[in-house]
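Listing 4. Sequential folding, example run.
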Amino acid sequence: MTADPTPEEAPSRASRAAGGCVLAVLGLVPVAVVFAASPDAGVLVTVGAVTGVVWWRARRVPHAANPAPPPPPEGAPDEKPQFTIVDDPDNPARHIIVWHRQETA
């Protein structure tokens, strides 16, 4: 009798949540040591660390979610610029600006 072949396992991918948990534990150990030495210093270290993390994350946010439209195409002085902002189907966080030509009377 032959043994059944075992199904191949899919390669596992590391979870970002697992990395965040490891970083949180590594960050909490020094804070716990400081709290054990002096509760006042522990509060100051915690407030400073949280302030630093919030400041660092705030700097990584994109600057403009709705930027100004680009200038009208060249050679269109008699036309009033008309445009429509459409969601990008490939990236929901981006928008596409579509120009429409409309001549003024």
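-- end of first protein; second protein begins --
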Amino acid sequence: MALGVAGYVGFNDDLLTGVKPPLRLWSCADTGVDLAAGILCCANRYDDALGLSGHLGLSFRDRAAIIIQVERQQAFHIDRGTFYEYDTFLGGKIGSTAGVVTGAANAVLGLGILIWLISTLEN
């Protein structure tokens, strides 16, 4: 079992920031289940409001994970007044080693595209 603290930044029509303390339960040496619940600070068009966030993830050797996340945010509509919206996301993540490799590869690719675009510009 492992317990940690994770910051959260997201954008879903509004800027979302928050904290989610995750709990990881190892089912065996290679596979773990992540559970997290936290508070979101939602800076929306109408006012600042607190929301809730939670996720369930399945991680493999700390190299990759599949995650489902649910967010509850306060919203406002002229006809309905204040109500709560629920959003669900399905995603994945890669561990730090793979993330550094793919991040560096993306930077090199982006730099190559930028150099190509600049070299093909006509004066």
